[in-house]
Write a structure and sequence with these properties.
Length: 162
């Protein structure tokens, strides 16, 4: 009886179609790569980090808006928190990829000038609490967000021969 149940279970297992999770395409669209390179040169921010953030935040969708409506565009910029920066840069449309990347890069540049540690910079960019950042600085343990952004940026750099 046990053999019959085991054989039936095995047959059932192999007769049910297997669902295979497709890996998400993280390839940088050429037009984003060109923008990131140009803006990276202007701001001294690694273009691959900009590309990785754009993927992580919006999956390269310039028109992306967060569920709460507060974060806009490729790098999910919050105009409430970045309004002065936007005004200084002449940015009026966060759904415009160039303008969005420029705000993100300028913000990252400012953060890198204040904090030399990339993990800290990315945690602040992503809005982590001061307590989370303190824990990271004490332990060195990256958050999932920061680890994904850094790993992807490294892959992009390798792809670009850097």
């Amino acid at each position: 009886m046990k053999k019959a149940i085991i054989v039936a279970a095995i047959m059932l297992f192999f007769s049910v179609p297997m669902i295979v999770m497709a890996t998400e395409d993280e390839s940088v669209p050429e037009w984003i790569a060109v923008l990131a390179e140009e803006i990276g040169e202007e701001t001294y921010v690694c273009p691959e980090v900009l590309e990785s953030i754009a993927f992580e935040e919006s999956r390269f969708k310039p028109e992306a808006v967060s569920k709460n409506g507060k974060y806009i565009g490729l790098c999910q910029i919050n105009p409430r928190w970045q309004g002065e920066r936007m005004e200084r840069l002449g940015v009026t449309d966060l759904k415009d990829a160039r303008q969005n990347l420029m705000v993100a890069a300028d913000y990252l540049k400012t953060l890198f000038e204040e904090y030399e540690d990339t993990g800290t910079v990315l945690m602040i960019y992503a809005g982590y609490s001061k307590e989370s950042i303190r824990r990271y600085e004490e332990t060195g343990k990256l958050t999932g967000y920061v680890a994904r952004v850094l790993e992807r940026a490294e892959r992009y750099e390798r792809q670009n021969g850097k």
